[in-house]
Write a structure and sequence with these properties.
heterodimer; A: about 375 residues; mainly alpha; two-stranded antiparallel sheet; B: about 450 residues; alpha/beta; Protein-Tyrosine Phosphatase, Chain A; nine-stranded mixed beta sheet; six-stranded mixed beta sheet; 20 strands; globular
Chain lengths: ~375, ~450
């Protein structure tokens, strides 16, 4: 059947605008850091990010053009997962310090970012084949497999990505109608893993305790009761765990409704760490005010709307679950990032998709959005 | 602020007093002006006030009665018994700065400190202009704050030099950026104790919020104390150690974090205290939106400030410097620090209960002689005895003549009096101009 392909212009334009906004704010937030800290030109980060954006849009256009149903094969499902897991293992040894980066000259790639599209394809492929026997024994395999993958990722200190992956997998299985008992089991496993991960690094532990108990009234007493106080204080000795969020709130507060104007952020100069990466939304808030923050939030809402809509519009299960997994992972990541910046969740190193500086994150997000566009073009 | 029909008294009819009268009259207040001097001694003020129909009275206890608002000039002690009496009967007593701040539009960069505030203020204005950031400069020196009101606009920075006296009489005054260059003993004749003086300066932070900025000297113990109470975002500067967040001097260059803002050899002013002023000004300009690269270029092109280590001329191989603005011991110390040696230093004027002994060691090392002038000469002589040859000259003209006769090629003749000027001159500017005229008339 010849199908007329209709580009989803609403979604496409939203993506282009978001990436352009990202470039603007990456430049604004990084120009001073670039000259003063890295002794580079002020457009150093902008240029890098622009290269990744061009690269990312080529990938996006490629995935948009090919029929997403071609991805519905064991080759893509296992191949994608396999390559990512292999790269993660490789990078563990190649980057002995942070276990995060492949470096090629001045460009670097963070393989954990690509676990997101790989997992989405894998889950969609699996569910499209097993949907009718979702609660059969064979369904537990992919659940375990994804948890295993998370485990591998969590070994490297990229808790943020792991969180997104776990949440995506759980949501997809929940929607697919997995038996609540199995779901509860997986959630419990995830929770235990999460608690272990938080506890494994004093700085994470400190951030969580201070976030939920800033007055030191309940959670702190529990920590004290179990004799964990010295462990908790190990992080506080180095840095005040509430510092970053306090600075972030000052940035957003001083922006007000209209903002102080592009390039005019003061917080980014000295006070707000990671202003051009994880905390870029605070710079948006300071420079472009409530309007800027609202615009970016609106962008993610459009992506959520166009993505979730596909659950009804897609013509096959593969497309349905693929769109769901992709949309959940992008929107959830944005949600966590915004919550952290606004001080509603403990500080967590997680970039804002399409806006934050970071090539791998941008490439991975645009890959996912390319697939999403492909599903939309071929939807009913 | 509604002043229509309010009875307002302005005390002190110098430049800032006249500006205060003008703004009060414009706001519809019923203004009375007074001064310690009789109206006959103030022909210009009398004429200006007469044209507006504002009465100018001699300052007596009676004029303070039946007022709604009293505005005092920076030169007027805030603890006059008449003022205390007015306060206790519920009359609002404020300074000219507070009055101006009610009507100034645009944010304020307030700069205070015992020394270096004039240079820092001038530099901040210079950097902002150089970077294309709209601003106007005034305050304690130059244009009174009240005279800036008419030209003030939202989005235009008001860069104000503030004295401890002006800060002592604020209420709602709010500085978006508050800069303190340093706090060393000064004006103790009026503040009485160092604690009172420190507290007066601290008031610059009084109405700041978490969104404002405090620029502080990390090498100054008093500033370190201010950091405990300041609510704004802190920005440091230091010429002794790396600071963060802030600017510091490593001996060769001014650094911002790890980056270099300016090499010291590209900076045109003499003396390491001027490096300090440059860092304070650069910090203020940074938070006002100037880019680091532009700031470096602006500082390299700074022309200097009159009466502040101002080079006058070379006569018979000796260089003459006018540092008439040095009205306290610390400022003179910093001026002496800027030279290698061979100094003929002119000291003296009206004493402010200062301790001149800190000058002994640097003068023993660098001075060929100290030339003493004015009323403070005997006290200075008793404090400095033995540190350097002392020549009692009486007035500035004889001091310049004596230095001219004795100076060898390569020597430096420096007017840096460590005293106020009011015994022999109208102001330190007057003293500086007289000095420059004398030097210009010397035969080469």
């Amino acid at each position: 059947m010849a199908q007329t392909l209709r580009t989803d212009w609403t979604l496409f334009v939203t993506i282009v605008v978001m990436v352009c906004l990202g470039l603007v704010f990456v430049y604004s937030a990084s120009s001073t850091v670039a000259t003063l800290k890295f002794e580079k030109e002020s457009h150093y980060f902008l240029l890098r990010q622009a290269v990744y954006a061009v690269l990312g849009f080529s990938v996006l256009m490629w995935f948009k053009r090919i029929d997403y149903r071609k991805l519905c094969s064991p080759l893509w499902a296992f191949g994608g997962m396999g390559v990512v897991v292999f790269c993660l293992l490789l990078v563990y040894f190649l980057d002995p310090k942070t276990h995060r980066w492949f470096r090629f000259g001045s460009l670097s790639i963070q393989p954990s970012e690509f676990a997101k599209p790989a997992l989405a394809i894998f889950l969609a492929w699996f569910l499209s084949r097993r949907l009718h026997v979702i609660n059969g024994k064979h369904t537990l395999l992919p659940a375990l497999f994804s948890v295993l993958l998370m485990g591998v990722v969590v070994v490297f200190p990229d808790f943020g990505t792991a969180l997104v992956l776990v949440f995506t997998a759980l949501t997809v299985f929940f929607v697919a109608g997995l038996n609540k008992r199995y779901l509860a089991l997986v959630m419990l496993l995830g929770l235990l893993l999460g608690v272990y991960t938080i506890y494994s690094k004093p700085y994470r532990f400190g951030r969580v305790v201070h976030h939920f108990d800033p007055e030191r009234k309940h959670l702190y007493l529990l920590v004290k009761h179990f004799g964990l106080e010295p462990y908790l204080n190990r992080s506080a000795a180095n840095r005040d765990p509430t510092y970053q969020v306090r600075q972030s709130k000052i940035a957003i507060g001083s922006g007000g409704i209209l903002g102080v104007g592009l390039m005019q952020s003061k917080q980014k100069l000295f006070y707000l760490p990671e202003a051009h990466t994880d905390f870029i939304y605070a710079v948006v808030g300071e420079e472009a005010g409530l309007w800027g923050c609202g615009a970016i939030l609106f962008g993610f809402l459009i992506i959520a709307w166009r993505g979730f809509q596909l659950f009804w519009l897609a013509t096959d299960d593969f497309g349905r679950y693929l769109a769901l997994a992709i949309t959940v992972s992008i929107v959830f990541q944005a949600f966590v990032n915004l919550s952290v910046v606004l001080g509603m969740l403990p500080t967590k190193g997680i970039p804002l998709p399409m806006i934050s500086n970071g090539g791998s994150s941008l490439l991975s997000t645009l890959t996912q959005l390319g697939i999403l566009l492909s599903v939309r073009e071929r939807a009913a | 602020m509604d002043l229509v029909g309010a009875k307002a008294l302005v005390v002190g009819m110098a430049k800032s007093g006249l500006a205060a009268v003008e703004i009060l009259a414009e706001q519809g207040a019923q203004v009375t002006a007074c001064d310690l001097r009789a109206p006959e001694e103030l022909p210009e003020a009398a004429q200006a006030l007469g044209a507006r129909g504002i009465p100018l009275l001699k300052q007596t206890p009676e004029v303070f009665e039946n007022q709604d608002l009293i505005v005092i000039s920076p030169g007027v002690p805030a603890d006059l018994p008449e003022l205390e009496k007015a306060r206790s009967s519920g009359v609002r007593v404020i300074g000219d700065l507070e009055l101006a701040s009610w009507f100034l539009q645009g944010d304020i960069i307030g700069i205070t400190g015992s020394n270096g505030k004039t240079t820092t203020t001038a530099m901040t204005g210079h950097i902002l202009q150089h970077c294309g950031i709209p601003c106007q400069v005034g305050g304690n020196i130059g244009t009174p704050p009240a005279s800036l009101i008419r030209s003030s606009k939202p989005g235009v920075w008001n860069v104000l030099e503030l004295s401890s006296f002006q800060l002592e009489t604020i209420g709602a005054f709010h500085a978006k950026v508050a800069v303190v260059t340093n706090v060393t003993p000064d004006h103790l004749d009026r503040h009485h104790t160092m604690e009172a003086y420190t507290a007066a300066k601290e008031r610059i932070f009084e109405n700041q919020t978490a969104e404002d900025f405090a620029v502080l000297n990390a090498d100054d113990p008093v500033c370190l104390g201010y950091a405990q109470t300041a609510r704004g975002r802190l920005l440091w500067f230091s010429r002794a150690k790396p600071v963060s967040p802030g600017l510091w001097f490593d001996g060769q260059s001014i650094r911002l974090g790890e980056g270099i803002l300016l090499e010291a050899r590209d900076f045109p002013l003499k003396g390491s205290h001027n490096i300090e002023n440059a860092m304070a000004a650069a910090a203020a300009a940074l938070v006002a939106g100037a880019r680091p690269a532009q700031i470096g270029a602006a500082l390299a092109a700074f022309p200097g400030v009159e009466h502040r280590l101002e080079f006058v001329r070379t006569v018979r191989g000796a260089s003459y410097y006018n540092d008439s603005k040095a009205t306290n011991v610390d400022a003179t110390l910093k001026a002496v620090e800027a030279f290698e040696g061979g100094l003929w230093i002119i000291l003296g004027g009206k004493d402010k209960n200062s301790d001149y002994r800190p000058l002994r060691d640097p003068l023993r090392e660098k001075a060929r002689a100290a030339l003493l002038i004015g009323k403070a000469a005997p006290i200075i002589a008793s404090h400095l005895g033995g540190a350097a040859p002392l020549i009692h000259c009486g007035d500035l003209a004889s001091a310049v003549a004596a230095a001219y006769r004795a100076a060898q090629p390569g020597d430096v003749v420096l007017l840096s009096p460590a005293c106020a000027s009011f015994d022999q001159f109208q102001s330190f500017e007057h003293r500086g101009r007289v000095f420059k005229t004398l030097v210009m008339n010397l035969e080469d």
